[in-house]
Design the sequence.
């Protein structure tokens, strides 16, 4: 998927690459010992760079005290909008492990190619991706995951929001755990143990969603950002998004009319918005139809506006919001 709204020209990419590599080269003499053996800043820990929050969370949970994790996407920044400075591009090459999701952040994809880092983990290769539009009907189609993982080549239209499905997120966790084991064999047992513990928590979260949404009055929910397709498929829901995969796109007049009709026919009570982008479109639609609004968080970053301080807390908040909107008992 390539939905970056401020495309970087080939010249800019080349310039950034050259500057980044020069910056890396300039400090290579002083930092050469830091790359694999650690230094006073990392305390000998494995240096892991994660592209954005859900991947940072996995690396930190699995790596625990054995890793020093850097997140390329700062809190409050929409991951789709991320751009990297030449200095950041150069620093990426000093990582022991890079965890990213190919197609979500073009600037990161370009930098990873230039990094020269041996241990790279593409989350999109660890679980099948699908192409989702503004409507995902999970009552008619469910993912065919069998727990074995294995990415698919869906191309530019692939939906990257795999972390919102606890089962798919667990598959990514297993891949990240294996990458850390390969990069740091001395602590492989710890990484394996932590991966198993995290997967167990995700399995419990999956059960909570299944049980919590079992007895519901409606299947359909409306949200601004088409981020919840995998979650809808997993639990037999219907996601109707005002916008597409791009969280800041505007709905067409035809889409707006279709949503008005759908809200009435499906007895929708709530329009969901998120924390990192404007809620103006959701509030306009809700106001026109006299519906309530609430937050359904795609967990692309944690800020002081998030309903929770980590992935699990926010997901349980999402479950509570969905239960209320769908009339679950």
Sequence:
């Amino acid at each position: 998927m390539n939905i970056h709204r401020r495309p970087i020209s080939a010249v800019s990419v080349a310039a950034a690459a050259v500057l980044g590599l020069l910056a890396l080269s300039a400090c290579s003499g002083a930092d050469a010992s830091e790359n694999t053996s650690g230094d006073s800043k990392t305390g000998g820990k494995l240096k892991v760079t994660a592209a954005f929050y859900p991947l940072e969370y996995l690396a930190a949970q699995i790596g625990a005290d054995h890793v020093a994790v850097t997140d390329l996407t700062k809190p409050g920044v929409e991951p789709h909008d991320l751009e990297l400075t030449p200095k950041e591009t150069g620093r990426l090459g000093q990582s022991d492990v890079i965890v990213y999701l190919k197609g979500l952040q073009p600037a990161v994809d370009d930098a990873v190619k230039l990094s020269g880092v041996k241990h790279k983990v593409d989350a999109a290769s660890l679980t099948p991706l699908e192409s989702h539009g503004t409507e995902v009907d999970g009552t008619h189609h469910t993912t065919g995951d069998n727990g074995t993982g294995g990415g698919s080549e869906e191309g530019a239209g692939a939906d990257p929001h795999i972390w919102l499905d606890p089962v798919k997120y667990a598959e990514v966790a297993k891949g990240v755990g294996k990458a850390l084991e390969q990069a740091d064999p001395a602590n492989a047992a710890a990484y394996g143990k932590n991966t198993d513990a995290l997967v167990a928590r995700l399995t419990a979260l999956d059960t909570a969603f299944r049980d919590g949404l079992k007895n519901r009055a409606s299947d359909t929910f409306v949200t601004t950002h088409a981020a919840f397709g995998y979650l809808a498929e997993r639990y037999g829901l219907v996601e109707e998004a005002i916008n597409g995969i791009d969280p800041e796109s505007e709905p067409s007049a035809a889409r707006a009319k279709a949503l008005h009709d759908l809200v009435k026919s499906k007895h929708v009570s709530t329009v969901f918005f998120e924390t990192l982008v404007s809620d103006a479109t959701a509030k306009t639609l809700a106001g026109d139809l006299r519906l309530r609004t609430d937050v359904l968080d795609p967990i692309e970053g944690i800020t002081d506006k998030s309903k929770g301080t980590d992935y699990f807390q926010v997901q349980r908040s999402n479950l509570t919001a969905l239960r209320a909107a769908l009339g679950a008992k």
Observations:
- The first helix runs from residue 10 to 26.
- Confidence is low (pLDDT under 50) at residues 1-41, 142-154.
- The CA atoms of residues 9 and 15 lie 10 Å apart.
